[in-house]
Design brief:
This protein is α/β, with parallel strands linked by helices. It contains 10 helices and 13 strands. A 5-stranded mixed sheet has the order 1-7-6-4-5, with helices on both faces. It binds acetyl coenzyme *A.
Length: 323
């Protein structure tokens, strides 16, 4: 059967780093408060004029180099983002242009912090159906543009960045020992629409708006959703959680990540944490964490890895793959 195998991964963070102390100069907050409640020490913030597509294109370029694949071979681009360059066209087409990719399907997927799980699933379905062979799957965000920088309850939590993987369709035996994506699970529940949203948008006729959140409610659901969907996707593949080499949870809050690890009975060394350095980069958080795990030598070919994500909607999802 055809599997979608990761052949390259890349990440890009803006140059400017803003630590908690710098935020405390202009907000009624402090480094100890932020670190204690979230684990976040710093975040990267895009420069003026630096667009989501710039970050996404840079991450994708790196993924292509590492896959040793010329841009001319890419025949699908899926971008997960909630901070597109423009309302339309898709940021995927901006990246297509910036990387001089050939014409082919290019689309954005909008599932906020669960976006990368959704984008991987969409690309995997194209590849397994034989509709594409080399897919660039990108999570790219400039959340700094939609934050209310006077709201200390939200603006300290997010950062900008992008990550990308190059998936290649490869014929495999059809067992759980195969390389590539073994199982995916997606879900959403619109009853929670107002727990985490942006208070503006094209059909409302006003400006783009700012992120609004009921932090406690998000926290409560995040722990359950992230853990339960990870357990479900592992079971879908006929495997057990004990067989996981690495869990890559969405990077929103260290306390959420630790609670998910405990709920799944995974030791801390099997759970990737980058939220301390990047804060929450929404759809970019999982590919950035994958890139980080590879760079650290914690993620190697043959490893069984589960990526699990949750965000506004609420929307959530998980992808199980053998690296
Ligand atoms: N600095 C100092 N004080 C603050 C700050 C801040 N940055 N933010 C809030 N406070 C204050 C509040 O005003 C409140 O003060 P009060 O008691 O005088 O009213 C007090 O701290 C407690 O506020 P709570 O909101 O109850 O604090 P809580 O312990 O719930 O922590 C937090 C807030 C960190 C946002 C937590 O709820 C959380 O992490 N939720 C998850 C949200 C999240 O990660 N969202 C990301 C998007 S969704 C996703 O990615 C999964």
């Amino acid at each position: 059967m055809i599997r979608s195998v990761v052949r390259g991964v890349g990440g890009r963070l803006p140059t400017r780093v803003v630590d908690n102390d710098e935020l405390a100069l202009r907000l009624d907050t402090s480094d100890p408060w932020i670190r204690e409640r979230t684990g976040i020490r710093q975040r990267h913030i895009a420069a003026e004029g630096e667009l989501t597509s710039d970050l996404g294109a840079a991450a994708a370029r790196l993924a292509l180099e590492r896959a040793d694949l010329p841009p001319s071979r890419v025949d699908l681009v899926v971008v997960a983002t909630s901070t597109p360059d423009n309302t339309f066209p898709a940021t995927a087409t901006a990246i297509q242009r910036k990387l001089a990719l050939p014409p082919g399907p290019a689309l954005d997927v909008q599932a906020v912090c669960a976006g990368f799980a959704y984008a991987l699933t969409v690309a995997d379905n194209f590849l397994r159906l034989g509709q594409a062979t080399h897919a660039l799957v990108i999570g790219a965000e400039t959340f700094s543009r939609i934050l209310d920088w006077t709201d200390r309850g939200t603006c300290v939590l997010f950062g900008d960045g992008a990550g990308a993987v190059l998936l290649r369709a490869e014929r495999q035996a059809g067992t759980s020992a195969d390389r590539g994506i073994l199982a995916t699970r997606l879900a959403a529940d619109g009853r929670h629409y107002e727990q985490l949203y942006v208070d503006g948008g094209p059909s409302q006729g006003g400006p783009v708006g700012h992120l609004r959140m009921n932090g406690r409610e998000v926290f409560r659901h995040a722990v359950h959703d992230l853990a339960d969907v990870a357990a479900a996707v592992v079971a879908d593949a006929g495997l057990s959680l004990a067989e996981l080499d690495l869990l890559v949870p969405h990077q929103a809050n260290l306390r959420i990540i630790e609670a998910v690890g405990r709920r799944l009975d995974l030791p801390p060394e099997k759970v990737v944490v980058t939220v301390d350095r990047h804060a929450n980069t929404s759809a970019a958080s999982i590919p950035l964490a994958l890139d980080h795990a590879v760079a650290e030598g914690r993620l190697r070919p043959g490893h069984l890895v589960c990526a699990t994500a949750m965000g506004g909607g609420f929307a959530w999802g998980a992808v199980l793959l053998r690296w």
